[in-house]
Amino acid sequence: MASGPERFVEAPRYSEEFTRARELLLAHPGRWRVIYHYDGDGIASATSAVRALRRLGYAAQATPLVGVDGRRMKELLRATRGPVWVVDTGASWLDSFAEHTYPVVILDHHAYPAPERETPEHVAFVNPLDWGVDGMSELCAATLTWLYTIFLDPKNWDNAAWGVSGAIADRQHVGGFRGLNARLVKEAEERGLLARRASVGLSGANLAEAVGRSVDPYFRGLSGRKEATEAFLKGLHVSSSSTVGSLPPADLDRLAVALEARLREQGVRPEFVSAFRQDRWSIPAGEDTIELSELQNACGRAGTPAVGVALGLGDRSSLERARAAREGWREGVLRGLGRLEAGELQELPHLQWFESPEGSLAGTQAGLGMTYLLDPTRPVAVFSPGEGQLRVSTRGTLWLVDQGLDLATVCREAAKLVGGEGGGHRVAAGASIPAGARDPFLAEANRLVGTQLPAKGVAA
Question: How far is the CA of 91 from the CAs of 114, 306, 422, 435, in angstroms?
């Protein structure tokens, strides 16, 4: 077993950045504001951060940030008379933090433009991209925050559940954990903080719910269709009232084979089909990290991210609210994916796009649509209404990234052209643009994707 995280990465900037961030936080006891992105990864990150602050005896206030909103970030900084810890966001606005007169620690895994000036002494910025670790697939914000809290105090290895649930929310578990994620999970397992078991990608009170309400994976012709699901299960001689965990191995295998066949028939890429059979991780208390990830993600998308943080901090009264949020989240995602299955999609030469009234769920709809329903050779963009602006979410696949796709650049440059702002990862990025700027944004985004990807016709 490794003795600690100091040598997990050999690049000098790894230990230098963590050491600077640790010293800055420990030198300023008192009340810290934790600003976090409102999705599942951000909620998990904030949970680990607040737990670590409480362990130090520091007071903490957790505040969510919705979307790519530099204006809101600046408002929060102006309103904060004390130190700030930012997780899963902030990399795009490093110059803004330099203007804050109190200490700032930023933990972010997104691609970022070079700041216009050198980072001042009261600001610490930790990003895995700076030490050769891919923040898109090898370390998310939650595993980055988990790792940082271990640097603060080795007792924080017990933030394992929130590191893993955040990584699942960011889909970094697909195909198995890789890189630094894998190293962290392996050591947590050796420390008895995580338990692994083989399973399949289904969750629900029974098989009728697990298959018929499934969004990840999304089964064309079954998801959102109760009668079709009942008929499908009956044809397999599997009881719809059984649970996944109660099925005999032979029945579970027969079900898995049939569902994998459906995914292949609907054109899902092989890596996502194979991910249907997956390891599941639980903590000693028995909580499943996939379920925890779903609850956190749902709380964020329902506009109640604080409930997700409270749940992670041990507030059991938040559990029912989180479960209700998950049902609403599933229903909204199913509506959007059902529209995509019905063909509500617009196409450009290099880009697909659609509109979604479920603003907080639009990115999830785009990501799952890209995985299970849409043309895998072109990324997708979704537009949803914001406060006086349009929010844009874009999604691709790692296969497209290997072909040259960089949606962080696409969103940043196309948004800049129309007076907005954007950024993110190569495989998933977002933007906020003026309300009437959809068409020029699309034209520029389509052009940029066309310069990145090979000509159409390359086999997916």
Answer: 9, 22, 11, 25
